[in-house]
Amino acid sequence: MRELVYYVAVSLDGFIAGPEGQFDAFLVEGDHMDAGIDRFPDAIPTRIAEVLGIDQGTGPFDTVLMGANTYEVGLPDVTSPYRHLEQFVLTHRSYPPAEGVTFTDRDPVELVRELKAADGKDIWLCGGGTLASELIGEIDRLVLKRQPLLFGAGIPVFAAGTYDPALFRRVSNRDFESGVSMTEYVRA
Fold first, then answer.
1. What architecture (CATH level 2) is domain 4-187?
2. What is the Cα–Cα distance from 167 to 164, expressed in whole angstroms?
3. Phi and psi at residue 4, in whole multiples of 5°?
């Protein structure tokens, strides 16, 4: 069965973006980058992967889910950021059609359960924190790229909500010279 994998960069104080939605303080150079690309080449935007010559066919994902704020990062220039994946933007906002992108206001849990029941590779939950909170009961695997910085405020890895406690078991941890730690958890 397919897994829903929340693979995301996070600050030491638990934010995936700063107070204005900024994420440019995250380290994008260093030894952690090669490890991330080796493991998750399909989590690189298509245009960037093409320029860098990254083979995205070897990755674990064939589908990506994101909320509106995550999708809007590339707008107006990039309307289909992960052309190599089936893309779903879960939103109540209205957008012009974009090639390879499905905009939907469906119940995220219902959509994920439907996707998990279908054949295919794993499903990447790209962001953001509100969507992650709505899907907490469906997340099978967390891969957190803990960055050595503090935002002080911003978008949390999981938005505040009323959900049942969820226990995860750490299956791996790797520390890099860059100061980034990549820790992977599976649902216990």
1. 3-Layer(aba) Sandwich (3.40)
2. 10
3. -95, 120
